[in-house]
Structure formats: C-alpha cells, structure tokens
Amino acid sequence: MSQTPLAVPNPNTVDLANVQGDVILGFPKKKEEFVFFVIRDAAKFKRSLATLKVTTTADVVKARKDIEETKSKEGGLLSLAFLNIAFSKKGLDALGITEDLGDQPFALGQFKDAKDLGDDGVTDAQGFHPLWEKAFESRVDGVFVIAGESWLSVTAKIVEVLGTFASSIRVVYRLKGSGHEHFGWEDGISNPAVKGIGGHLPGQRVVPPGVILCGKAEDPVANRPEWALEGSFLAFRQLEQLVPEFHKFLADNPITLPGLTREQGSELLGARLVGRWKSGAPIQLSPTHDDPELAKNPDENNNFVYPQAPGDEGQTECPYAAHIRKTNPRNDLDFLERDPSRPVNAVQKSSIIRAGIPYGPEVTPDEKHTNFSEFHRGLAFVSYQSSLSKGFQFIQKSWANAPNFPPVAQKKVEAGFDPIIGQKNGQSRETLGTSAGSQLTLPRDFVISRGGEYFFSPSIKALKTKFAGSPLHALDLYFIRAGIPYGPEVSLNEKHENHTEHSRGLAFISYRGSLAEGFQFLQISWANNTRFLPQKQVTPGFDPIVGQNNGQARESLGSEAGSQLTLPRDFVVSRGGEHFFSPSINTLKTKFAGLSTARTARISIYCV
C-alpha cells in the first residue's frame, strides 16, 4: 500500500533534540556496551519505554562542551553515561508496528544478507548458514547502545535500563567495547559531516541531512511513514580481527625497495593495504614513510584526492584496493556524474556515519610469540544511514567485495578486493598495488564477520508517540507494605561514639500482584534513578534514604534551595532478601495439596 510522502517543513534543518545522540555526532566515549534483547511482553515494554530517558544529539553537543570545559579547568574525566535504543524489523513486528520503512535489507534482516555480504559459512540442502554468533542466528528485536567514560558509568546505566524493562524483555547477547583499533591503526578519521550541523574540516565530505536521516533533504526514499522522520538505520556487525595472524602476514611479505629494512617494508605493506600509516597519515600525501605530524593535523590529514591522470597502473601512491580508497573513493567516481549540477554525487549518496568501537582484549605476549589468536577480539562495527541499500550494504557488496571497483575508465587494471574488510565467503582474495605492478594473494580473511543485524533508530518524538505506550501511573505501582523494625534501640555508647555497634534496621515486606511493577520498579527505576521525574529541568539525584549506588557516594538535590548534597555512604544497607509467592488460602488447601488453582497475589520480602 502506498504511503504519503513525509511532510517536512524544512528538509534541510535538523532538530537536534529529536535525533538520537549516537547517530550524527557519535557518543564521546571510552567504554560502550551493546545489549541485544527480545521483547517478551509488548504492553509492558511500551509502558516502560515511556519512562526511558534517551540521549539526544542536543545532549551530546552539550556533553562535548562540558567535557572540554572539565579538561581545561580540572584536567579530569567528566562522569557521563549515554543511552540509545534501536529496533530490528522483528522488533517492530513485536510492537505491532507494520508500516513499510522502504528499505529491503532492513525488512529481510542481516541473516538473509549474509551470503551476499561475503560472510564465511556452509551451504547444505537448507541453504547458506553463516558462521555467526548463535544470538545473531536467532531472533533479535532490539539493542540498547550504552556508552560512557568508564565501566562504572556504563554499568550503572545498564542496571537502570534493565531494571526499567525487567520482565518485558529477555537479554540474548551483550558485547563490550573499549580501547584502540586492534591492528594498530588510528581510526575514525574520515567520517562525513552533516550539512547544517557544526563545521567541517578541509577535505571532509559534507552530506545533506537526508543521506543519514530519513525524511530530510536527499533521502533516497520519498514515501516513508511520518514517524520515520529524523530516524536512521543502524547496521551492526561483529567483526572479529585475527591480529597476530595479520601481523605475521605483513612480516612475511615485506615490500622490497632500496634503503628499506625488512621491518620498514612490512610497515609499508600495511600502509598500502589500509591506505594510511598507523599514525593515521594518508599514504597519498606521504607515500614512502610515516608522518605523525601530518597525522595530527586535522586540516591536512583528510584533505586530499586521488590523481586521475592516465598511466598510473603502478599505483605509485595509494593503491586502488587500499581500504580507505575502496570504502571512500573520493573523486574516483567523478567521471560517472552526468549532471554536475546535482547536489549529491555518487560517493556522497553512499556516505555513512561510523560509530563503532573495538572489543576484546589486547594481544597477549603468547599470541605475539605463536602468531595465533587465542582470544576473540575485533570491531563492534556501527554505521548510520538513511538507506542500508545505498549505505553499508552497498559499500560492502559493491565496493569492498568487488574486485573491479573503483571502475576508473582510464585505468587498465582490476583493483581486487578490499584487503581489510573485503570478503569472499571465506575464500582467498587477490588485491593489486601493494607494490608497483604486483598482485598479492591474501590467503585468508583477517577480518571475519561473526554476525549482526539491521536496526532502525527512531527519533525521540517517534519513541514517545509511536513506540511507547501510556506510562505507568503512580497508582499502578502501589503495593502493600507490612515490614517491622528489628534489632535493639541505639545504645548510649553508640550515640556518644556516632558508630553502630549492633545490627538494626527494617525487615521490609511488600505485597503486589507483580514484582516488576511493584517493589522492583520502585527501587530500580525510581529510588536508584538519578533522572527520575525526567520532565523536570533538574536532576533530583538518588533517594537519600533507600536509594542505592552499589555502596558508592550518591548525590541528592534540594537539601537547600538550589544546592546539591553528596551522601558519603549508604545509611540504609541491604543485607539480602528474596522474592516469594504467597498463595491464597484456597490455593494452599487445594493446589498445594495437588488439586487446583485459585486467586493469587505476589509477595516481595526484602530485609534491610
């Protein structure tokens, strides 16, 4: 069924408070965790979603400013946590959202795409089976993307989120990311800038908003549901890197040139495979040696194009198959443009915002010695685009995996596969230009897909209106409390010493028909949630009495007008407890005696 084109007042402007924070600018992060889930109870999920505080692009802009101010004044790290959420097609179906988003790869899911993406796998009578993580072979409805400056901040946010959704979801997979690119290269240099959002550096591609955001200028799909406006498709891939094996390959195949040592020849080979030296300096500007000063200069390290003069079949500077040239061909496709007046060229149309992060441990001394990977490590690849078929999928299939790309007319050579991410279903691959006139056969993939999924990251408005249900009313969360204090009164000596010598407290008991919407929700989502009452313009902090932060200091607002008070410790400390079920009298007499069930209630006994 056809849909009405999106009504966009100004397709060139972007509401930063309506776009999820990781999409355009990326989270300022040192740690990140991806929490993949399936929806078990759609109604409960929607109600919980209504209370979720999702990080916006406007939040990220502010956070970046705050981080810079903190660095300049205090020299430390600002404690921050960021949260985004995205849904697969199966996730939309689970929520009863059935409108066509106009993107076939998203509709089919990444598992159906695995063979065409070149992923390694086996084929039998039932078809192609990629060698993926089990979780990605099954149903995944959505993902929480949670990032921060430390695992402490990230973990606290995850606990808050999982407590909010409680029994409405089941977590099926988690992946933690941190650190530097495992092969050793500086990464993330050539992301495009979105027109109208901040400035851009020399040589940086500037793309219209619709290349990244649905419903904006130059979105390739005209007819999308209205709620898709300012949403973006998220491609997630878990890419395992065989780091010791890759470094051994470089060491065994050095480029031989006069004056180069074997080690320098190996470094040059790596630079020509990637297109940059490990420092990030492009070989197009520094073809024979690394230049760290060039790499550190943001006005120069991305400001270059590729020469198009005939006769460069030897690929003197940057090989056609170099990773950065295969995935960002810059001016290599200019000859294909039939209408120079068009605002978007072929490379711009396929631009993506990359926001991935490495995962897994650093290479161990034993792995370096044996040249064999004992631990799993790689890249949690994330890209955002308004069209998967013109963004990630196109770049992987039609550029990285295509031996005849780039199709520069005057060159009489075939480039070969992208030597870093190009895939051929596990088979050996050829790449050209590692040295003048030579062809190099890569005996295996050094980057292996372990699965992934395609998601949609809705706008903040869509999350609140289309995706979320009515939030739980306070009356819906009441429970019956029936606790009693335990332990002796405070002794005169304790009063004098201001120190507790005897255990005392509250034997807390609550009754409720649902733990997830009773005690558990109030403790995790209200008492422990510093952002509870999100409609207010202040962050109230923890409940100063029963709010808990795993034994750490907590902030609470309003002890005096406009002030914030830090509580140095918990004054109410949990000593354990359990959740119980309290049957009705009739059930005790019948069901527990082996007969039938009757009306029931739930009991949560929590001893503090």
TrEMBL record:
**Enzyme Commission number:** 1.11.1.-
Q: Which cofactor does it need?
A: heme b
Renumbered to this chain, region (Disordered) spans: 282-303
Q: Which InterPro entries match?
A: Dimeric_a/b-barrel (IPR011008), DyP_N (IPR049509), Dyp_perox_C (IPR048328), Dyp_peroxidase (IPR006314)
Q: Where is the composition biased (Basic and acidic residues)?
A: 288-299
Query: What are the annotated GO cellular component locations?
Result: cytosol
Judging by the UniProt lineage, the source's domain of life is Eukaryota
Keywords (A to Z) from UniProt = Heme, Iron, Metal-binding, Oxidoreductase, Peroxidase, Signal
DyP dimeric alpha+beta barrel domain residues:
18-178
Which Gene Ontology molecular-function terms are recorded?
A: heme binding; metal ion binding; peroxidase activity
The record places domain Dyp-type peroxidase C-terminal at: 222-399
Q: Which family does it belong to?
A: Belongs to the DyP-type peroxidase family.
Q: What is this protein called?
A: Peroxidase 2 Short=MsP2
Organism, as annotated: Thanatephorus cucumeris (strain AG1-IB / isolate 7/3/14)
Encoding gene (name): msp2
